[in-house]
């Protein structure tokens, strides 16, 4: 798992298991474009599930 993916996973764990993409971008030092390029990999790996702008741990 890449460092950014680990950071997103840790953030979601501390956020009660899920958060919006805007919350993630606001609270972490990553840009929206970076987040949206990483989320498909994390979804394919089964780490997260995405419903619209809401991202949750699987």
Automatic annotation (TrEMBL):
According to the lineage, what is the superkingdom?
A: Archaea
- In Swiss-Prot or TrEMBL terms, this protein is called TrmB family transcriptional regulator
